[in-house]
Amino acid sequence: MKLTFLGTGTSQGVPVIACDCDVCLSSDNRDKRLRSSVMISINNLNYLIDCGPDFRQQMLREQIQDIRAILFTHEHKDHVAGLDDVRAFNFKHQKDIDIYCDLNVQKALLREFPYIFRDLKYPGVPEVNVHKIDSDEPFYIDGNLFTPIEVLHYKLPVLGFRLNDLTYITDAKTISSKELEKVKGTRVLVVNALRISDHISHFNLDQALSFIDKVGPEIAYLTHVSHMMGKTKDVEKQLPNNVMFAYDGLQIEV
Hey, which of 66, 67, 110, 171 would disulfide with 153, CB 3.0 to 4.6 Å? Predict the structure, then answer.
């Protein structure tokens, strides 16, 4: 199983438009972050978690020829805005794309992309099959067991996903002890860390590191990072040996 980080930035990405801070002006490619998304590849099948506004650019950069399914964490635009571009895969492979989401995301997609779900569709619109999922019910795709993990993004429920020894969590601020138990035993953990200072709806760096300590993975990767974190090369010196910043295009075997 291979994990590809398609994007590792927060909702504005890095660099931020019109910002002249040191991070946004950095020449280090690790400081250039598209909106957060990952791709899990198993037996030549690609499963995406989220497809934000940079989806097209990410697919072109990684030269992706097909995707099997998209799993959505929540309905915010930086995680769903790229759905229209799945039609490229519809056209090429003459098939619908399976998407997996909870009821909140399903309602948001209907609101944001009404033309996809009309009975009488305009020619060429994206074709998708919607599978409703719930935080309490693990589900299979192609024999692969995905376990949803509910976290709170301020007060908004967000789903992380565990697949075997890999857990991916984004946009978390709090997690219940019940949901934490689903994560324990994970060998590879990906979790959001927005910035150094506290934030109302995201883990900051210290909170992410505390969460990693509770889970106890072999290795952890920080994602959904903003320009307020500081330069990667500077902040990474403060990290434990088993924690590193993810960056766009990073690939790991799990």
Answer: 171
Residue among 108, 7, 99 at smallest CA distance from 53: 7
Preceding omega of 15 cis (within 30 degrees of 0): yes
Query: Rounded distance, CA 85 to CA 59, Å?
Result: 10
Q: Which helix (H) or strand (E) holds 99?
A: strand 97-101
Coil/strand/helix, residue 64: coil
Under 8 Å between Cβ of 64 and 51: no
Give the residue-averaged pLDDT of 234-243. Answer: 97
- Best CA proximity match to 142, nearest among 151, 158, 131, 154: 131
pLDDT digits (tens, 9 = 90+) for 162-188: 999 999 999 999 999 999 999 999 999
For 88, what's the count of Cα atoms within 13 Å in the CB-facing half-sphere? 14
φ, ψ of residue 126 in degrees (nearest 5): -60, 145
Q: Which residues are within 8 A (CB) of 27 and not within 5 positions of it... i.e. 6 or more apart?
A: none
pLDDT digits (tens, 9 = 90+) for 27-81: 999 999 999 999 999 999 999 999 999 999 999 999 999 999 999 999 999 999 9
Domain parsing of the chain, residue ranges: 2-253
CATH superfamily placement of domain 2-253: Ribonuclease Z/Hydroxyacylglutathione hydrolase-like (3.60.15.10)
Question: pTM here?
Answer: 0.97
Among 162, 159, 184, 182, smallest CA distance to 172 is for 159
Type of residue numbered 120: L
**pLDDT at res. 34:** 98
Q: How far apart are CA 124 and CA 248, in angstroms?
A: 30
Nearest Cα to Cα of residue 39 among 75, 64, 3, 71: 3
What's the pLDDT at 207?
98
